[in-house]
């Protein structure tokens, strides 16, 4: 049984390529914030892409500040920090990743999944025209 999770957030640092034996590994962190003002909290997720995903062209876009949607399997690990306090580390083995934007708006959208070909050219987002108040009249069923 696995714990599936989806997270939308921003990368806290540039990703890093590694080797785990003969398998490619790409690690990065994603921050997800909730709340406002003094009530704002941030959850950090350590994310890992394995195999072909770790070697894909999408990794070049995984830089600090990039906004992403992550879908994968969650693992929680408890550890003791340097001060002796217990903490929990949230790790995600990524099954699918979507680039939603970055420091510059209007970037192309890229996706990598286990089931897709990672060398496909990126899909460009199509801007939808803004709806006006008059457009909603036809949506009302009465």
Q: Could you spell the SSE succession in H and E letters?
A: EEEEHEEE
Note the beta-strand portion. over 45%
Give the C-level CATH assignment. Answer: Mainly Beta
User: What is the CA-atom radius of gyration, in angstroms?
Assistant: 19 Å
- Count of DSSP E strands? 7
Task: Give the number of domains.
Answer: 1
Q: State the CATH architecture.
A: Beta Barrel
CATH homology-level superfamily: Nucleic acid-binding proteins
Low-confidence parts, pLDDT < 50 over ≥5 residues? 104-111, 113-126
Query: Strand order, biggest sheet?
Result: 1-3-4-6-5
Q: Quick check: average pLDDT?
A: 77
- Helix segment tally: 1
Approximate shape: globular
The largest sheet is: 5 strands, mixed, barrel
Query: Which class of secondary structure composition applies to the elements?
Result: mainly beta
Distance between the termini: 46 Å
User: CATH fold name, please?
Assistant: OB fold (Dihydrolipoamide Acetyltransferase, E2P)
Q: Which percent range fits the helix content?
A: under 10%
Topology summary:
Blueprint: E1 4-11, E2 16-20, E3 23-34, E4 41-50, H1 52-55, E5 67-80, E6 86-101, E7 111-113
Parallel strand pairs: 4-6
Antiparallel strand pairs: 1-3, 1-5, 2-3, 3-4, 5-6, 6-7
Task: Output the keywords.
1 helix, mainly beta, 142 residues, five-stranded mixed β-barrel, 7 strands
